């Protein structure tokens, strides 16, 4: 229904009645519809009029979908409390230490076959081909040290002003090296709901000023749990025959994110909580959302692979790494 609407010139329409189903992070219709709404704030879609971005009818639909997403998050992610006398930085470290997704990166490093690695890259393409963009929404909503810290992190994500060093460009090179289509959004119809949900919560937090604390915590969680998995991904890709250019995206994150972790936890999140104490638990919640969804993603992908089936909605053509 939504795609048909957007293929026409902007017009008023009534959003569908609320679903009677309990909201779920694994609801394919919910996650795809919301992703489409959000994508109009990024690069849009060919054939979709740009006036749709802020059209009242679409914003009403997006608000209804966001309400369902937020209820699904509340069901799936317990809201962490800041311990009495505790610091946001220390609590973020504690949350990251409880993260259980490391087994997934160990599997990729040691056991994944080429087609499983390619599937993993397709999942990640939904975010990595626009890496950093959702968190950049927070820059005009911050000030002082938190703002400077976020700009420092994002400058690295965008290659320090060199287009070929932008992380999204490095990831596109990885995709080409694996015989995958690096076009933006090429695999949107192949990925399942949980992959879209991972991207959607970034856009939810980024597009609403009230979620600026959650967005900061989300970024911190990504940076804190990045270096070791990316080292494992690089090792796994080399085991499968990946060359230096194909592995560069992962190599870059091993070093960069070790630095970003310190900037994000202390200069961004700790300082933001000091300036706006009411945001402290929002920061922790954003981190918990990032970690929980990644754990759900890892569990579901591994379940598919254990059962000998694709983790995508449709299998990829089997191709070797180009020599």
TrEMBL record:
InterPro entries membership: Haem_Oase-like_multi-hlx (IPR016084)
Region (Disordered): 1-22
Any Pfam family hit: Haem_oxygenas_2
Compositional bias (Basic and acidic residues): 1-11
Highest rank taxon of the organism: Bacteria
Protein name: Iron-containing redox enzyme
